Amino acid sequence: MNGPAGAGPAERPVVEVRDLSVRMIATKTPIVSGVSFDVAERQTMGLVGESGSGKSTVAVALLGFARRGLEICGGSVRVGDVDVLQLSGDKLRDARGRLVSYVPQDPAAGLNPAHRIGGQLREAFSVHENLDKRELEDQLAELMRAVNLPSTKQFLRSYPHQLSGGQQQRVVIAIAFACRPRLIVLDEPTTGLDVTTQRYILEKINEMAADYGASAVYVSHDLPAVAQVASKTAVMYAGRIVEVASTAKLFGEPRHPYSAGLLKAAPSADETNRLVGIEGRPPRPGHWPSGCSYAPRCPRAQDDCRAEEPLLGPIEGDSLVRCLHPIPLESGAGLALTAAPRPEPLEGTAVQVSELIAGYGSKEILHDVAFGVPRGECTAIVGESGSGKTTLARCLVGLHSNWKGQITLNGQPLRKGAREREHEQLRRMQYIFQNPFGSLNPTMTVIENVEEPLRHFERLSPRDRRRKALDILDTVHLGKDFADILPSSISGGERQRVAVARALVVEPEVLVCDEITSALDVSVQALLIEQLRDLQLQRSLTMVFITHNLAVVRSIAQNAIVLQTGAIVEAGPTERVLDDPQHPYTRQLLEDLPRMEPSGQAAAVG
């Protein structure tokens, strides 16, 4: 493989990965096969793909680590002059932190909940550095300034649970940079963060990589975030890299059909387009098809694609693509989209909220909130973490009862708690939780989970109940093949569609969706958004859509409400709120929103 796209031809890469392969120990089934790439000094390379593509497996393999049940079975990971995969024991432990470090997706998983923040930061230095007390405290203070966190005794004596998610992530980043490693591996470090916190974290990653002279591999399914930090991007599918190019080139003119599919699935912050998800599922390890692994899902596949496995080879300049029939340059075939349809306006208001004040104990979270949700339309509620979005959603459905004011459904007042509400009111307003893992009963099959609301709201025979549940599974594009398996056997996106089916099976008038796309792959998110749009059009469904993703708001919602610290600061038609925001907070959210165009810094490096 040639030098990295985005680095000059004479510039030797700091990180050289060659033919990296990982397999299952018991069956020898390949998980990652023949992965090769380079990263130059101070360069960030994005690594993108759907869940199951192997990108996180590659990420941890760069530290010489394989998850339980897996083993690294081939290749090399050279950082500077050291092949990490040739190290073992104390030498490997010393390399992790000093030579290469890791930032996990969940900062809580990277911090010990029983130890104070200061102790964990000091340990990051003391394990690898022989510093006296004054030197350690000086370096600790410098590191805390770099991530914009206080180095006061009070803060350093905090436990992880006493910090916000953004603060936890900055502590983890500080630990990763503590010993100035040559390579930083960032595995989905901003998933679930609001746009303001996300932008801050992305800027810190860029600044610290430049200041500390580190190379970085940024693993994510969030394509706009990758565009902001990476000068080069590699796309993975079924355990292999299928395209590598400068980020500007790949996002502007993708050559592999899979890369184009990911980009078409991403919502735009500036245009209301129909999203195009990638139908089908990535092949499971051990079930990779003969020929091109992407052929069963590829609209450009031909007979030779199913017979011959393509190699990763050069195509115009520094780009590499694994495809027998790549998308021609300037063909327009890769990224064409169509405008999203709008629902027909209906008369009346489905949900009306007046003078709503809500809190936890004596702490007030929502302050005099008032708005209406028009029938048959989608109203998005947006804001940073802590703005009160989820508290508001839980008040609507009766899961939070410490509130004052009035909430009506079709003009009928709702009591505070769900148990106090009328049976028919409960049926008419259904709630879809953010986390499908926690909202489905793991001991019940998919169809049993979907049938459960019918047991409460309708008197049906077991046969009729199953028939109705199967019909709704077809509606969310799952079908009978998923009926009799457990939730643990399906992907996160499929679980979320099961949760949607369970809410729809009782034919509600209003769906309250709480951050239901925040942890989904971009392709799965697109399929779910379009299914909800179709249901809205077919059933005149009213939706309250809680999210921190303004690009998703643009795609699905007809109206937008902006919450800041528990108060509405702006509301109106989505186009007006996003195109001509009146409040400084709304303008700041839009400014912080990552966009698909590579940032100036990333483009300059690449």
Protein model, in words:
With 606 residues, the protein is of the alpha/beta class. It has a domain at 349-436 and 510-592: P-loop containing nucleotide triphosphate hydrolases (Rossmann fold, 3-Layer(aba) Sandwich), CATH 3.40.50. An 8-stranded mixed beta sheet has the order 6-7-8-3-9-10-12-11, with helices on both faces. A 6-stranded mixed beta sheet has the order 18-19-20-15-21-22, sandwiched between helices. The longest helix has 18 residues, at 195-212. The protein is globular and about 70 Å long. Residues 1-10 have low confidence and may be disordered.
Provide the descriptors you would attach to this structure in a database record.
alpha/beta; Rossmann fold; 8-stranded mixed sheet; 6-stranded mixed sheet; 606 residues; 22 strands; 23 helices
Spatial separation of the terminal alpha carbons: 18 Å
Q: Report the portion of residues in β strands.
A: 15-25%
CATH homologous superfamily descriptor of the domain at 349-436 and 510-592? P-loop containing nucleotide triphosphate hydrolases
CATH class (first level) name of the domain at 349-436 and 510-592: Alpha Beta
Numbering strands along the chain, what is their spatial order in the largest sheet? Answer: 6-7-8-3-9-10-12-11
Largest β-sheet summary = 8 strands, mixed
- Structural class designation: alpha/beta
Can you count the helices? 23
The beta-strand count equals 22
- The CATH architecture name of the domain at 349-436 and 510-592 reads 3-Layer(aba) Sandwich
Question: In short, what is this structure?
Answer:
The protein has 606 residues and is of the alpha/beta class. It has a domain at 349-436 and 510-592: 3-Layer(aba) Sandwich (Rossmann fold), CATH 3.40.50.300.
